[in-house]
Amino acid sequence: MHKDNKSTNTVRRIGAMALTGILCLGAAGNDNLPFFLQAAHAAEAENKERAAGSDGAFASDPEESILEETTESVVDEETTDSPLENGTQDTEEKPIENPQDIPEDNTNSTGEENSDNSGTQNTKPGKPSDGDTDKQNNGNTAENSSPANEQNSQKQPVSDAENEQDTLTEEEEQELKEEEELAGEEEDNGEGNEELIAQQTIIRLPEIEEDFRFWTVERVYGFAAEKLTFYEEKNENSRKVGELKKDGLLYVLQTQEDGWYYAESGDVRGFIREDQVLTGQKAQPLLIQYQQKAKDLAARRSREYTGIEHAVSLAVPLIDKTENQAYTYIRATVCQTVADKVYALVQADRVNIREEQNTEGRIVGKLSKDSLCYILADQDSDWVFAESGNVRGFVKKEYLNIADEENQLAQEIKDNCEENYATAEEIIAPAENKALYYTLTSIHSGSQQSSLRSELLAYAAQFAGNPYKWGGSSLTDGTDCSGFAKAIYAKFGYQLPRTSRAQSQCGTKIAVEDARPGDLIFYAKNGQVYHVAIYAGDGRTIEAANEELGITSLNAFRKNAVWAVHLLSDDREIPQESSIAAENTTAQEQGESLGEYHITYYCPCEACSDTAGTLQKDPSPLVEGCTVAVSPLTAQEGEQLIINSHLYTAIHRDDLRENEASIYVSSHEKTTQLAETDTQLYKKK
Asked: Cβ(254)–Cβ(261) under 8 Å?
C-alpha cells in the first residue's frame, strides 16, 4: 500500500515539478533540446549531485535524490547588451584581445574556476601589446529561475488502454517479491554485481555529437482562425512566446496527438492550439487571396513575386528567441537552411569570432592564419556572420580574404580540398552561444532525429507524482518500476516482459554511460537485477521509485546501475547534400521501372510551394540531391528511387500527379537554372 500522507504527497509534488523542468531541458541527444540552456543546466545538476554523493539507493533520502533545480534562463546584465556566461559551467581558456581584435599567440590567458560556488572566475592577466593593456573579456553571472508550472499530482494519461492491470504468473509474482526485497536492503558496494555484468554481452556505442543545425521541410500553411497565442509548452499556463492576429500566417511543423501543433511564424516558434488554426482545404481560400494581394503589390513596386509574407500578418514575439525554450523543440523549418558557400581565409595570425558585432562581445571561437570559414550573412557589413567547423559568430571583415568574382580563391580552395584547411577553435560550446541562430542557414543540412524518444518521454512525464504500487501496472492508480516501463513502452508498440529481471535481457545491452533518452537502465544488488528506470537525459531518470516517492525523476547513474538496454529505433540521419548530376548508383541497383516521369525542380520558397498541403506528424526533411517529391500513388514515403543513375528518397506531395516528380534544390536561383526534363524513374532493388 502506498503512503498517502501529507509529507509523501509533498515529496511527489516536488518530484513532479522537478521532472517537468528536467524534461524541458533534458533528452540530450534528441531533436527536442533547447540548445541555449541545456549544457549549463546539465553540468550544474550533475556536478551538484555527484559532489553530494547522490549515488545511493533509489529508495532513500528523497531530499537528496529529487531534482532540486528548476528551469534556468541566462539573462543579460542590465547595464550591457553582452551575453553573460553561466557561472556554474566549467570555465574554458579565454583569449586576450588587443584593440585590433587580433590576440597575439603569446597573450592568451587561462581561466581558473574558483573552488566555491559563486560562479565567478579568476584569470591571469595577459601580456601587454604595443604598450597598450589588453582587455580581458570576463563574463559575469546572472541566473533566472523559472519554476515549472505546478501540475496536478494525479495526472491523467492520454489513453487508458495501457493501464489495464496485468495478470501475474506465479513466476513473475515471485520475481517481483525478490526484487522488492533487494530494493529494501541496504546499499552494497557493487562488488556483488561484477560477476553478473561479466556474464552479459554489453557493447559500447559510438559517441554521438549533437548537431545544432536546422533542416528544411515542406510548407504546411496555416492561418489563425482567431487571435492566437504561441506557448513555450503544450500548456496554456506556460509562458507566452508570441501572438498572431486573426487570419495571420503560420506554418505547421509538427502535429501533436493531444490537440496541439508545433508551428513557426516569422521569428516565433512554439505550440498553438489546433482548434484555432485553419489548415488544408480550409486554408486554401485565404492562401489564394493573399497570393493575389502579394502579386499585385510586387507588380506595383516592380519587384519579383517571392511569396505572401509581405502581404500578411506574422506572429509578434513576446520574448527574445534566445530565451524561448520551444525554439529548438524540433529543428525543422520551412526556411532555406543550406547556404551557398562563400569562402573566406583568415589573413591575420589570430582572429576572434564573437557573439556580437563589436569588440565587447564574448569570444566564442578563434581562427588561426589561413584557416577556412564560410560567410553566412552580412557580407557587406564591417562584421560578417561566419561559420567555421561548429563555431558560428561575428568576425571583422578586414581580417578575412573573401572569395568573389574578382579572385580565384574559391577555385583554389576547391582544388586544395576544403577538408584540408584548419577550422575555428571552439571557445564557447554551441549550446551556450547566443549568436548560434542569428541565421538558420549553414553550409550543411542538420540531422533529423526521430521524435519517438521525445514523444515517449513526454508521455511518461504526464504521470510524474502518481503513486507507486507493488505488482501494479496502472499509470494513474499505482505501478511498480517494471510495470511503469512496460506500460510506457506498450504505448509505442513495444511489448516488454513484466519484471525488471526479464526486461534486462531484452534488446541490445549497452554501457550505462551510453544510454540515450528513452533507453532503460537497470540496477542490481548482489548479482541480481531488482529495478528499472527510463533514462530521461541530463543524467536523470523517470521511474516508479518507491512508495514514498512514487513516479519521479532521480539521478540515473547510481552505483548499482549495471547496464542499459537499447530498444527504440535508432534516430535517422539526413543524408548530406550531394550534386544532382552525380551518378551514385550502378545499373545493377536499378529495380522496377515506374515509367517515364516529368521532372521539375523546386526550392523552399513560397513561389515553388504555393498550395496548402496536408499535415504530417513528422515531416520529412528536404535535402538537395537526396529527396524527390512524388505523388503518394508513385511510391511509399521513404522509398528509394533512381533518376538518371542518382539515388533519391521519396517524399509525398499531394499536388503532383502519378507521372510527375519534383526534385528539391536549396535555392530558387537553381530552380531557374535547371531545365525540366522527361526521364525514366526506377525503384532501387
From this structure: yes
Cell of 215: 533542416
Q: Which of 72-76, 190-194, 203-207, 536-540 has the highest mean pLDDT?
A: 536-540
Angstrom distance (rounded) from CA 258 to CA 260:
6
pTM of the model: 0.62
pLDDT band at 574 (very low <50, low <70, confident <90, very high): low
Tell me whether strands 627-630 and 646-652 are parallel, antiparallel or unpaired: parallel
Determine contact, residues 661/643, Cβ cutoff 8 Å: yes
CB-count burial class (<10 Å; 0-12, 13-18, 19+) for 310? middle
- Cell numbers for 588, please give them: 545493377
What CA–CA distance (Å, rounded) separates 153 from 13? 6
Higher-scoring residue by pLDDT: 63, 389: 389
Cα–Cα nearest to 660, from 587, 590, 602: 602
Lowest-confidence pick of 30-34, 257-261, 365-369, 411-415: 30-34
**Confidence bin at 577 (pLDDT 50/70/90):** low
Burial class (CB within 10 angstroms; exposed 0-12, middle 13-18, buried 19+) of 108? middle
If one compares 75 and 114, the residue with the highest pLDDT of the two is 114
Q: Which residues contact 254 (CB under 8 A, 6 or more apart)?
A: 261, 262, 330, 332, 451, 617, 618, 619
Whole-number Cα distances in Å, 229 to 70, 95, 293, 317: 24, 43, 26, 10
Grid coordinates representing 668?
530558387
d(C-alpha 649, C-alpha 629), whole Å = 8
Q: What residue type is 91 in one-letter code?
A: T
DSSP 361: S
DSSP H or E stretch at residue 483:
helix 481-491
Distance, CA of 661 to CA of 676 (rounded, Å): 10
Q: Which three cell numbers stand for residue 534?
A: 527510463
Q: At what angle do helices 6-25 and 38-51 cross, to 10 degrees?
A: 140
Q: Which of 676, 671, 662, 673 is nearest to 611 (CA)?
A: 662
Helix H segments across 6-85? 6-25, 38-51, 62-65
- CA proximity to 509, closest of 499, 522, 490, 524: 522
C-alpha cell at 232: 513555450
- For residue 215, give the H/E element and its range: strand 215-217
pLDDT tens track for 619-675: 788 888 889 999 999 998 888 999 999 999 898 888 889 899 999 998 888 888 898
Burial tier of 111 (Cβ tally within 10 Å: 0-12, 13-18, 19+): middle
Long-range contacts: 413-421, Cβ < 8 Å, 24+? 413/343, 413/345, 413/372, 418/372, 421/345, 421/370, 421/371, 421/372
pLDDT in tens, 327-371: 998 899 999 999 999 999 999 999 999 999 999 999 999 999 999
Residue 446 burial by Cβ neighbours in a 10 Å radius (0-12, 13-18, 19+): buried
Question: Which residues contact residue 595 at a Cβ distance below 8 angstroms, ignoring those fewer than 6 apart?
Answer: 659, 680, 681
Residue type, 153: S
Please state the rounded mean pLDDT for residues 431-450: 86
Q: Are 665 and 674 in contact (CB under 8 A)?
A: yes
10 Å Cβ neighbour count for 151? 18
Residue type, 338: V
Give pLDDT, residue 462: 87
Query: Helix crossing, 6-25 with 452-461: angle to 10°?
Result: 160
- pLDDT at position 188, please? 59
Q: How far is CA 316 from CA 32, 319, 580, in A?
A: 23, 9, 38
